[in-house]
Predict the 3D structure of the following.
Amino acid sequence: MQHKQALITGASRGIGRAIAEELAGQGYDLILTCLRSIEGMRDYARYLEETYAVSCTTFRGDVGDPSSTERLFASVNKLDVLVNNAGISHIGLLQDMSPEEWRRVMAVNLDGVFYTCRLAVPLMLHAGGGRILNISSVWGNVGASMEVAYSASKGAVNGFTRALAKELAPSNIQVNAIACGVIDTDMNRCFDEEERQALIREIPADRMGTAREAAALAGQIIASPAYLTGQIITLDGGWI
Ligand code: NDP
């Protein structure tokens, strides 16, 4: 029997990499993308192929560039699952942010989700159903000081998720998001040890989450009935 196919953006590191292994474990053939780390991601794809007997293709491109996403989809003719995971943060006061920096955060975190979905949905309609999962943030729900652009981009992803879920529910396409709290990945390497400990003290679970925990939840949402749709599911150790 032909395997189901899943596309994961930003799969070279962190949460996306862990989701790749989770879905390989569920028997999905994978299309993995990243912006720069293509060599490491190719090695990882080979590891997944050998360990889980699935096929993995890799693509280097910028989710914030619509022509790059069109190139990616030019060779995709079947898609069951889309995980919009690629994202960037920007920390600093709003008044110190340039329009170019603002646009970049929006292009990667928000526009990128639109560019993939607009090309994935016709394939899912053709297949009679599908799953879209967006990796969002608790800051999209409540906002964070020094992360206004990031919070705005993830808040928009949450609105996008709820609206697209309504649009696609009649077509058996599930659309959800995970609002992550602090997950221990490269994204948080900008904090020094003191700042990390201060953050952890605020989290009732008394630790950061792991990429594997985020991936396990992603796997469960994707495996859940399509009737579970339009949800922003928080994974934050009781933090927010
Ligand atoms: P990492 O910084 O560890 O990894 C980011 C991944 O996204 C890498 O694979 C990177 O590729 C890829 N990427 C970045 N920019 C682009 C781009 N323009 N086009 C294509 N790929 C790109 O991040 P995390 O794993 O921590 O974060 C994953 C998602 O989870 C993000 O959407 C983030 O906002 C969200 N999130 C993370 C939290 C956390 O605490 N870690 C908290 C809340 C949400 P490359 O290796 O080539 O650079």
